[in-house]
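Subject: Predicted fold for DUF881 domain-containing protein, 309 residues

User T.R. writes:
Posting the sequence so we have a shared reference for the thread.
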Amino acid sequence: MTDSQLRPESREPTGRTYAPDFLTELFRNPLDPGYADAAARRQVGAAVRWRRSVRAVSLVVLVVLGFLFAVAYRQTVAAAPGRQQAREGLVAQIEQREAETDQLSERADGLRAEVARQRAAALGTEAAQLHELEAGTGLGRVRGDGVVVRLADAPPDEQLVTDPGLGPPRVIYLDLQGVANGLWASGAEAISINGQRLTATSTIRSAGQAILVDFRPVTGPYEVSAIGPDELRKRFAQTRIAATMQQVAADTGVAFEVRDADDLTLPAAPDPRLQYAQPSATATPSPGRSVSSGASGPSASPDSFGGGR
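User M.O. replies:
I've generated the structure tokens; pasting them so everyone works from the same file.
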């Protein structure tokens, strides 16, 4: 067989070329290229199938989430009228109760005035002394000159307080407590907050963000009216609570104003429910201690004393 007969067979393409050192090449690359190509194709197919699976799962998740959002939105929209109706019903009940309370208060004032007239007619000369006692204790209507302290929340566009040490940009019950105590200390003879007369048993509290005076809510702006001597405003301006409220107003934007007022009229407070201490019939005094009998008079509630912020 000649060389010309071997040449056509040597031109046929083969996937592998052999180096002169056949054994070394066999150990270096033992896998036939066909197997390598098949493995590469399997890897590519697996990657394609994985991407398709991820896309399918993502599509299913998006569909489920969209369905859940649609159901939640529909339920929220469907329940909105019910919540609005319930809110309107509660508001209507509150307004109705407040109107009934106002009517009962007016009726009580009328009955109180009638009782005062009947009592004055029965007491004669002692009626004037009783009237003075009622005015001093807050159970009688009084008129006179004095001052009005006005407090109001900061406007919405000025409520930008970020330092928690400065307090909230609104009036709190401690502010009203401090102002009332400052006016008492300055010589005030009668005080009312938004028409609510203060007595020795009055309370100034908070329920959430609402302020209660004798368990009745008051809303801003708050006006603390006080009847007292001519120098009442000057004395109050020198108190610690006045300086504190001025600083609070400068830091938080809360309104704090003090002005003189002529011919103020403060209403009478409702008759208090007094409680009297009675000795127990079976109580035995312990050694070194004595049991006192008798009734205790009205005492100021702890809630009526406060030092402001």
